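Recall that a protein's primary structure is simply its ordered list of amino acids. Everything else, from secondary elements to tertiary packing, is in principle encoded there. The following example makes that idea concrete.
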Amino acid sequence: MTKTTVNAAAGGISIHAVDVARGIPARGLAVGLMRLDPDPVEIASGACASDGHFIHPVSEGLGVTRGMYKVTFGVGEYYRQSGTEVPDPAFVEDAVFQFGIERVNEHFHLPFKFTPWGFSLFRGGA
């Protein structure tokens, strides 16, 4: 494979979150996505839809460039809002994951699976 050119269209970053403790899509889970370099900037924020997908133009490539990123998921608040009992402080308050994008034309899908006690996140559907 060859390196991406500067003019290549961005493939985007998509997120799908599942509350595996309750076996449901993570409707309302807060998501924040920052590009860390070359200049730190928030490129997306909001909450997951009823099917657990984070609906935002970033999934189509808006604002995505080569560099390092950080995604933050509001796990503790999600469980408190759902009425699920969590410790105070929560074991997982915010789940934070840093990742890099070299080939900006590729799509980066981040399936996020979580419970009040842990989480899994990886690059899926490349």
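Helices lie at 75-82. Residues 51 and 110 are 15 Å apart (CA to CA).
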